[in-house]
C-alpha cells in the first residue's frame, strides 16, 4: 500500500513539475513577445532611398556665389541637402529649390539646422552674380557652389551625378540633362539619403525630420 501511494505521489510530483515548467516556458514566451512588441524600430522608415554607408558623396570643395572657398566641413552639425542643377533649368531645378525652402519653413526652428547646397553644372552661364540672385529668390541661407568645368565634373563624379550639354534649336543655345534627385548628408557629413525628384514637400519634410531626430 505504501508502495502504491509512493508511486502515485511520484507520478503526481512529475505532473506538477511538468506543469510548472510548461507554465514558466509560456510565461517566458509571453514576456519575450511583449518586449518585442513594445520595442521601437531601430531604423526609421524613410520615404527616400537609404544609402547610409555609401562610399561616395564624401567631399565637395568649390567656391560659393561670393567667391569664398567652401567645403562640407563648413556645414558640420547641419543636415545638408545637395542638389546639382543650373539656373536656366525650366522646371526640375526651381521646383526642387522651392520645395526645400518650404521644408525649412515647415520645420520651424529646426529648419535652421538644414543647409541647402546648389551645385552648378553650368558654370559657363551661371556666373556668381546670377547665382546670388538665384539663391536669394528661394532662401537667403542657401549656398550655390561653382567651379571650373574640370572641378564641376569631379564633384559630379564624387556624387555619382550625371550631366550633359544638349544643343538647342538655335546656334550656341543649349540645355542640360542631369540627375534630378537630391542627396541628404547628416551632421557629420555622411551621405544618408537620395531623394528622387517629384517626391513632394511632405515626403522630404518627413525624412529630414527623422534624420534630425537621430542626430
Please describe what this structure looks like.
The protein has 2 domains: 1-39; 49-213, 3-Layer(aba) Sandwich (Glutaredoxin). It is 39% helix and 21% strand. The protein has 5 helices and 10 strands. Strands 1-10-9-4-5-6-2-3 form an 8-stranded mixed beta sheet. Helix 2 (92-106) crosses helix 5 (201-213). The protein is globular, with a radius of gyration of 29 Å. The N and C termini lie far apart (75 Å). Mean pLDDT is 86; it is low at 1-40.
Specify Rg, calculated over alpha carbons.
29 Å
Gross morphology: globular
Supply the number of helical segments.
5
Beta strand %:
15-25%
What CATH calls the topology of the largest domain is Glutaredoxin
Mean pLDDT: 86
Largest sheet: 8 strands, mixed
Class inferred from helices and paired strands = alpha+beta
Distance between the termini: 75 Å
Low-confidence stretches: 1-40
The CATH architecture of the largest domain is 3-Layer(aba) Sandwich
List the quaternary state of the chains. single chain
SSE string, helices as H and strands as E: HEEEEHEHEHEEEEH
β-strand number:
10
In total, how many domains does the architecture comprise?
2
CATH superfamily of the largest domain: Glutaredoxin
- The strands making up the biggest β-sheet line up spatially as 1-10-9-4-5-6-2-3
Helix content: 25-40%
CATH class category of the largest domain: Alpha Beta
